[in-house]
User: Which sequence fits this backbone?
């Protein structure tokens, strides 16, 4: 297979304009005759479904929850980036583009990122017009905060609930189209397979999660907006139902999967506390604006913290090691996520962890509270402080001690956790996959974040794809489809696809072993974290691949699914997803093993500088690693490379030190 | 460290919307206090699956209090005894050793039971579709800073907009009224200049849809505000009433 990224010609700042000026369009009368399936109702899915419906296409929109408003975009806390330069601090489209490419460790596709930065301003305009209540200054203008990996304040926010407000904005636009009759909504439905006719994506098989029945849906194009694959690791900040099944179904049907090893580990999550834990809770990166990260300087203090004989507030200022400020003076606590996560792991690996497991560092607000007062700090982070207290029973805004006139507040404990996946289904400049008529948007594609995503850029990308990119580019495909009549679903292709799904479900129901889905999923998660997690080695990855194969065998022989295929059966739904998580786990490991360099979220311990920084190898790995399915889960996938070419930016080593 | 507790669970089981439901009792032993309520139900379900039985069906997703998917009527309170927290943010340290914990689904004419503790909240989507939006076409917005909004208005709109659509207000209300939910959206948009244009139409359409779908009337008991996990204020209901009356008088 040869990959064509279809990047338009011309200078980087004119590519998107040129594309839009010359792409094919569909006239209003023809739009009514064309059907589009959109799977997912997060920021990307809801904004795309709403915009396409508004343009006049007939849209079928699916979500697994009881309402589109539940999609996991809702949990994003900190904010959304845009190059408005409202703060007059020197921001521009070019700088947002540059920061994103650099933050992604020079592994993103330049043209896609430039377009993202270009449309970022329209997103803010659009959301404000919808009534999204962004934070404002007293003069009535919009407020901004700063985020990791940037030296300007370009992040727009709505308290610590920016994702919620942006999703509710997109959901309201979607609701308007449902009322107008252009979008038909299918809630509690889960995609089970992609249906191809003559080599093109023409429909899906979906399971009605209430009745358990399989249903068929046809369309001229299929868009998947189904999020990332973080839950492969079992414990992550993703919601419980987040899964990679739609992406894996498309992969098995021939869509290439790009850069699966680029997994983002978020530095500020509440540490793991026990083996019954179901998920990890993120504490927004915005906390790093005012919070300072530290561990003790003295190993005996760390040992006392681990034994529970000392508390963080017992350790005076001079004995604290603010290791991010020490190592990265220019960016300090606001280094990108991958850098901050690795630095935490490095300290904990050396024995300086601060809780009973030794896998935690402190995030401290003492300095900020002394400087700003508790009221200002609570205004900024009050809901996060409350959330932290509810989970851990510790109030980070509470004065704990005063030593020599210095006030010490209870610090938070944090540790890195799986959060976001930069890799995803490969798409070209038009967001079309290697399957004709199949598009992927939002987190489930790979294109914009390279090897590491900057904070407040996920919301930007989801809405950019859904509001401002896909509604244009999909027309370039659909313009050739205007004479194709609506599809029937009683065709051999649909029969075969449904029969295959039914056979798979019967197979899972009839294993009748002794192990629950969750127990096997937890085992997969442990293997992934141990061998395919924050620090990877060739040896470990090989071991990981063996372990995943063993888990697959265990799954196929020991799984037990209670109940029946009729009616609601959550255990069955989880089993179907786990089948795909196992395939995903292997993909991540294969990619990580083949990429003999460290970059962004992918850190191979063999490839680091003397100072412990990631060591890229641009000579040999300056490409997108795309994996092609070989017809069976038992066969290793084949690597296809999309070479990266940079025209606007000089590729260099990332430097956050000075 | 939190200590472990043991307790009795009385959980509502119901196989489908038309089936008759009943309570089933389970003994839970040595559950750590830092387990969340939903993780405790995960432990129960692991036990049930281990015994070859069907697990208890309950709605949940983000498990960090924002998606609005989790529900549960625990010991007579929507989302349980904690204030300003959803069920997923409730931790077992809130309960006592030896206690009996009763868990039921939301009970309201507007939210029929689907299975066990899962109810159908599709009515909320329908109310939103009736008018919970600003009619603005993608790409037609002016520069965001051309529209100045006083900070207090933006903050108040944000407070109203923090509703997560979980349905606790309806479950808490003896009349099964959805007024707090409707008023939160009407208020958010009425407080902002972008939303003023359609304010009258929106208030009428959303209230009419709520009535049509079988939700009860508001008699100002304030139970909704007391149980709302996001602390959405009943001042929003007063604002909705004003908007609704203004719209009716204008007709």
Assistant:
């Amino acid at each position: 297979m040869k990959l064509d990224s279809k990047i338009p010609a011309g200078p980087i700042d004119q590519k998107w304009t040129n594309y839009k000026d010359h792409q094919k369009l569909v006239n209003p009368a023809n739009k009514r005759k064309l059907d589009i399936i959109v799977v997912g109702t997060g920021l990307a899915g809801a904004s795309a479904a709403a915009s396409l419906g508004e343009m006049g296409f007939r849209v079928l929109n699916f979500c697994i929850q009881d309402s589109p408003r539940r999609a996991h975009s809702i949990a994003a806390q900190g904010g959304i980036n845009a190059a408005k330069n409202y703060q007059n601090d020197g921001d521009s489209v070019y700088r947002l583009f540059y920061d994103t490419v650099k933050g992604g460790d020079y592994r993103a596709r330049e043209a896609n990122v430039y377009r993202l930065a270009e449309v970022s301003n329209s997103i803010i305009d659009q959301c404000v017009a919808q009534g999204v209540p962004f934070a404002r200054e007293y003069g009535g203008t919009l407020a901004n905060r700063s985020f990791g990996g940037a030296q300007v304040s370009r992040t727009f926010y709505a308290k610590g609930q920016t994702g919620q407000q942006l999703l509710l904005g997109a959901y309201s636009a979607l609701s308007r189209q449902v009322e107008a009759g252009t979008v038909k909504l299918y809630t509690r439905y889960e995609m089970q397979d992609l249906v191809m006719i003559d080599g093109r994506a023409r429909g899906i098989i979906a399971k009605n999660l209430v009745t358990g029945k399989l249903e068929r849906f046809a369309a001229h194009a299929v868009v998947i907006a189904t999020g990332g694959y973080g839950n492969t690791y079992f414990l992550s900040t993703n919601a419980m139902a987040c899964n990679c099944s739609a992406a894996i179904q498309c992969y098995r049907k021939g869509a290439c999967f790009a850069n699966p090893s680029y997994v983002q580990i978020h530095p500020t999550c509440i540490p793991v506390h026990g083996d019954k834990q179901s998920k990890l809770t993120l504490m927004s990166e915005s906390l790093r604006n005012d919070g300072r990260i530290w561990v003790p300087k003295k190993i005996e203090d760390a040992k006392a913290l681990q034994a529970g004989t000392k508390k963080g507030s017992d350790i005076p200022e001079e004995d604290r090691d603010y290791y991010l400020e020490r190592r990265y003076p220019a960016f300090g606590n606001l280094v990108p996520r991958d850098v901050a996560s690795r630095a935490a792991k490095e300290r904990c690996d050396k024995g300086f962890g601060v809780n009973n497991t030794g896998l935690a560092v402190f995030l401290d607000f003492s300095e900020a509270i002394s400087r700003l007062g508790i009221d200002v700090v609570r205004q900024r982070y009050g809901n996060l402080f409350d959330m932290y207290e509810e989970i851990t029973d510790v109030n980070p805004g509470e004065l704990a001690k005063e030593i020599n006139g210095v006030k010490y507040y209870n610090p938070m404990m944090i540790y890195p956790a799986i959060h976001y996946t930069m890799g995803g289904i490969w798409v070209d400049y038009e967001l079309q996959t290697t399957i004709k008529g199949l598009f992927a948007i939002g987190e489930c594609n790979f294109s914009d974040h390279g090897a590491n995503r900057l904070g407040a850029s996920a919301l930007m990308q989801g809405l950019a794809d859904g509001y401002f990119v896909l509604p244009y580019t999909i027309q370039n495909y659909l313009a050739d489809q205007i004479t194709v009549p609506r599809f029937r679903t009683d065709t051999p292709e649909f029969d075969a696809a449904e029969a295959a799904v039914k056979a798979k479900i019967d197979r899972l129901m009839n294993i009748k072993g002794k192990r629950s889905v969750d127990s096997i999923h937890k085992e997969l998660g442990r293997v992934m974290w141990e061998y395919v997690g924050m620090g990877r080695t060739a040896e470990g990855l090989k071991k990981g691949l063996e372990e995943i194969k063993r888990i697959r065998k265990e799954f196929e022989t020991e799984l037990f699914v209670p109940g029946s295929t009729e009616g609601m059966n959550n255990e069955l739904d989880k089993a179907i997803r786990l089948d795909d998580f196992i395939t995903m786990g292997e993909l991540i490991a294969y990619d990580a093993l083949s990429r003999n360099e460290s970059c962004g979220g992918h850190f191979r311990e063999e490839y680091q500088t003397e100072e412990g920084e990631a060591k890229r190898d641009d000579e040999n790995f300056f490409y997108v690693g795309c994996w092609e399915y070989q017809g069976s889960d038992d066969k290793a996938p084949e690597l296809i490379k999309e070479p990266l070419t940079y025209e606007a930016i000089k590729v260099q080593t990332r430097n956050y030190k000075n | 460290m939190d200590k472990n507790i043991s307790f009795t669970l009385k959980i509502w089981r119901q196989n489908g919307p038309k089936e008759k439901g009943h309570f089933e009792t389970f003994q839970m032993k040595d559950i750590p206090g830092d387990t969340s309520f939903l993780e405790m139900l995960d432990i129960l379900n692991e036990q049930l699956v281990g015994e070859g039985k069907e697990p208890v069906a309950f709605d949940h997703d983000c498990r960090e209090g924002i998606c609005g998917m989790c529900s549960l009527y625990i010991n007579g309170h929507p989302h349980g005894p904690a204030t300003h927290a959803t069920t997923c943010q409730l931790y077992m340290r809130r309960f006592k050793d030896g206690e009996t914990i009763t868990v039921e689904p939301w009970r309201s004419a507007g939210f029929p039971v689907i299975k066990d503790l899962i109810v159908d909240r599709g009515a909320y989507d329908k109310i939103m579709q009736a008018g919970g939006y600003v009619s603005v076409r993608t790409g037609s917005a002016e520069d965001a800073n051309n529209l100045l909004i006083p900070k207090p208005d933006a903050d108040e709109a944000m407070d109203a907009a923090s509703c997560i659509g979980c349905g606790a207000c309806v479950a808490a209300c003896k009349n099964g009224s959805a007024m707090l939910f409707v008023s939160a959206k009407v208020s958010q948009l009425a407080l902002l200049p972008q939303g003023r244009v359609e304010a009258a139409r929106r208030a009428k359409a959303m209230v009419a849809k709520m009535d049509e779908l079988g939700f009860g009337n508001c008699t100002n008991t304030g139970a909704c505000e007391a149980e709302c996990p996001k602390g959405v204020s009943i001042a929003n209901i007063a604002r909705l009433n004003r908007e609704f009356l203004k719209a009716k008088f204008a007709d």
